[in-house]
Specification:
By secondary structure, this protein is mainly beta. The chain is 8% helix and 43% strand. The longest helix is centred in the middle third of the chain and has 9 residues.
Length: 169
Amino acid sequence: MGKPFSVNTNRYDPYKAYRFLVYFGTSTTPVAGVSKVGGLKRSSSPIEYQEGGNAIVLKGLGRTKYDAVTLERGVTHDTDFSDWADAAQKLDKGAPATSLKNLRREIRIELLNEAGQPVHRYFVHRCWVSEFQPLSDLDASGSAVAIEHIKLENEGWESDLSLTEPQEN
């Protein structure tokens, strides 16, 4: 049997991936209807080097890269995704326009327990929309929800270490 959770000693199962919220900027209201978050990943490049007299190729830590984060949700009249995507580029009478003031934002991703309490929180820094799909493929023979999608380039993320395991009943 595995090690119990530090506060909730009767809990042995991990948290569920379907309980989460996403926030843009300093908003206290979550983004409406986000159904999928992907790409919270980082990787570091190895730097290989050789020493005289050593038959092994040594490896050191190189630069760290943070993958783009993707968000998906069902299409509604909420304009959070499109408003942010338009900051990167919007056509105005055929001419492209960019809003540097509204281009970058912080986002916050919270994983929740079964009671809806935050158990993990991640801050993703200096995000901007590099890809926007306002409507998924339409198919008259299907029965799926129409999905909109944004891809967020970012300059890193970090875990909120001040968030502790909540007491569960």
